[in-house]
Design goal:
The chain is mainly α. Helices cover 67% and strands 0% of the residues. It has 12 helices and no strands. The protein has helices at 7-29, 38-97, 102-121, 131-140, 153-156, 164-171, 173-184, 192-203, 224-238, 250-259, 267-275, 277-286. The chain is elongated. Bound molecules: fe (ii) ion (FE2) (2 copies). Residues 100, 144-145, 233 line the site of one fe (ii) ion.
Amino acid sequence: MFSKSNPVKRLNLVLIVSICIGEALVMFALPSFGDLSNGVTVVLDITLLTLITIPLVNWTVTIPMKKYIHDLEFAKHKILVRENQMLAALNSLAAAKDNETGSHIIRTQQYVELLAKRLKSMGHHADTLSDDHIEKLVKVAPLHDLGKVGIPDHILKKPGQLTEEERDLIYGHSMIGENILLAAQSEDVEIDLIAIAMKVAGSHHEKWDGSGYPRKLQGDTIPIEARIMTVADVFDALVSDRPYKKAWTIEEAYIEIVSKSGTSFDPIVIEAFIAERQNFEEIVKRH
Ligand SMILES: [Fe+2]
Ligand SMILES: [Fe+2]
């Protein structure tokens, strides 16, 4: 009889029905009280209506709505659990192939968080960088190199110089990662977490001046999530030991990154990086 999905319609209907019943009862009952003053009639009228309306609203609207909200919260919780399970599976897939250490992952997540929060507090991309969005961006940051699962080990771990063909193959990891994530995306309802992960995986090697890959995106056309990721990832690569290079000092890495503002990196993100220098240094020392 009542529409479960439309509580306003249901409430309206219940109120109309209870007013009709109440008024009918009042008209039926009043004559048996004899002559009453207007004031007493109004009080009796309101009392009767209240006595009828409250249990009726409770029975037909409040109780079903409470159950409905409880079911909704449970469904939301289940979705969150599934999302986290999927994320954990993708993360271990990425970690299985990537030769990055666990501490690289923790550090880059922390840099991403610092940059995103600083940008937000500076009033940039405030519409995009909600607390929830930043939390999701931090969660998916370790997936930026997920596409390396599609690159043969003998190329990925080649100690010497890469041929042009091998370099092109490695460059393919951005699109491979994006496509893996696209397969995990829902066709009906876009999963936020996956949508952000796709931006990070697909565009973390794009450069502000358009000289990056895979799409040679330029400036604002590069998703902000990827512009943040690239600064975090490059900074950490510079200050870390790699098989092919020694770790740079924090000062050297800082100068290098700032010098590439407007060419490799978004100047606004570099502003945030400069403002967060102290915190970046602390993260390097802590991990
Ligand atoms: Fe990468
Ligand atoms: Fe990385």
